[in-house]
Design goal:
Layout (H helix, E strand, L loop, with lengths): L1 H19 L4 E4 L7 E9 L5 E8 L9 E7 L10 E4 L6 E8 L5 E9 L2 E14 L7 E7 L6 H10 L17 H9 L2 H5 L9 E2 L5 E7 L4 E7 L7 E2 L8 E8 L5 E7 L6 E7 L10 E6 L6 E4 L5 E5 L8 E7 L8 E7 L6 E9 L5 E8 L3 E8 L9
Antiparallel strand pairs: 1-24, 2-3, 3-4, 4-5, 6-7, 7-8, 8-9, 10-11, 11-12, 12-13, 14-15, 15-16, 16-17, 18-19, 19-20, 20-21, 22-23, 23-24
Helix pairs in contact: 2-3
């Protein structure tokens, strides 16, 4: 009898442990509607509130009504605030916003203002606020342009690193320049390499106070990092991350002090998340190489948890954005042993992409992402990281 009772109690205890880790809880930030909304970013403010933003309008780079919108979720609240405007350059599309709270607890909004309806002509913008807690939009105290000036080392990197990729360019005809040659010629133009650097993912703050703002270019189909060593007063460009379409980098600091970048694949087969490494605080980068993580040409984000493990939120497929998955690594991204989908639909019947991922002060994961089924919105979810490793 005692053995049976003990067994029953053990089963109940195991079941209770499994039940204690609930799945993602989520809600749409605003009612689903027909206009385009995309590229969200999420941050937790010092008072515990969440602030989210995204771009919204009748299109993307060619729609002049596109602006950056935002909303708040107060600490303890279950409903998001009404939507408010965060940035709107009259007559130009404002896209790809990124939120960041620096070491001085100032709120930053980075985004791009698109010129001539071309991503490669975009201008990198920022706003900063010290008074941003409470209802409504932040009270911006400063706004400006981040002007980067990649130098000759940008050209040198393309010239030196492309041969390391072992890229097969033999199919190019005599009348068609090689891909690497086209990029090299473009890199020699100072204006081309100064324009078109675009935001997407949160900055990374290093232990020495350096801020790394990850950027990418659709003109060059490459990435680099904007570096500030004076709390954002001035910025300079890193050496580029060279590869076959490595864009929209997300940065994670490793225990040995090196930095891993994971990137969307906008290049050739196979479609995989790309990765590169910096061992000098973001100044220079290795070439971008394939991981074994699938990527359909879509943004992703990787963060380091407080306990040292890493979490990735990404589209776990080579085609489409109909699957959005959380993965967890206990070896700093070498392998991703645990994966669980947070959204899943038949191909063509759901679009869940461009996630923004944070770990809140209470240890929970929070994310926002584009949510499109019959209509469109930005969705917010929260979940305990332990759920990722809990068997279904």
């Amino acid at each position: 009898m005692r053995t049976l009772l003990f067994s029953a109690l053990l089963v109940l205890s195991l079941c209770a442990g499994a039940w204690a880790v609930s799945g993602p809880q989520g809600e749409l930030i605003f009612p689903a509607q027909d206009k385009h909304c995309h590229g969200s970013s999420l941050v937790q403010l010092p008072d515990g509130d969440l602030l989210a933003c995204w771009f919204y309008g009748s299109g993307e780079r060619s729609a002049d009504d596109v602006q950056v919108q935002g909303a708040r979720l107060g600490k303890g609240d279950t409903a998001w605030s009404p939507v408010f405007s965060m940035a709107d350059t009259p007559g130009f599309p404002d896209c790809n916003p990124v939120l960041y709270v620096d070491a001085q607890k100032r709120l930053w909004l980075f985004w791009i203002s698109v010129r001539a309806s071309k991503w490669e002509d975009s201008i990198l913008m920022f706003r900063r606020a010290q008074d941003y807690q409470g209802a409504g939009a932040p009270k911006w105290s400063w706004q400006g342009v981040i002007a980067l000036k990649p130098g000759d080392d940008f050209v040198d990197a393309i010239k030196e690193d492309f041969p390391k990729l072992n890229h097969d360019e033999s199919l190019w005809g005599e009348y068609t320049p090689k891909y690497s040659k086209v990029l090299l010629e473009a890199a020699k133009d100072p204006l081309k390499r100064q324009l078109g650097w675009m935001t997407r993912i949160h900055p990374l703050t290093l232990p020495n106070g350096r801020i790394l703002l990850p950027l990418y270019s659709d003109g060059f189909n490459l990435s680099l990092v904007a570096i500030s060593d004076d709390t954002g007063e001035t910025w300079r460009a890193s050496r580029p991350i060279v590869g076959l379409g490595p864009i929209q980098p997300t940065l994670v600091l490793k225990k040995d002090g090196s930095i891993a970048a994971f990137m969307r694949d906008s290049g050739t087969l196979p479609h995989r998340v790309l990765t590169a490494t910096s061992t000098d605080n973001g100044d220079t980068w290795s070439i971008a190489t394939d991981t074994d993580v699938p990527n359909p040409g879509s943004s992703l984000e990787v963060i380091a948890l407080k306990d040292g493990r890493w979490v990735m939120l990404f589209n776990d497929t080579e085609e489409g954005r109909h699957i959005l998955t959380l993965a967890l690594s206990d070896d700093e991204g070498q392998t991703w042993k645990w994966k669980r989908p947070v959204e899943q639909a038949e191909k063509g019947k759901g679009n869940y992409g461009y996630p923004s991922l944070i770990q809140a002060a209470d240890g929970k994961l929070h994310a926002t992402y584009t949510f499109s089924e019959t209509a469109k919105s930005i969705k917010h979810i929260t979940v305990d990281p332990a759920w990722i490793t809990t068997a279904e």
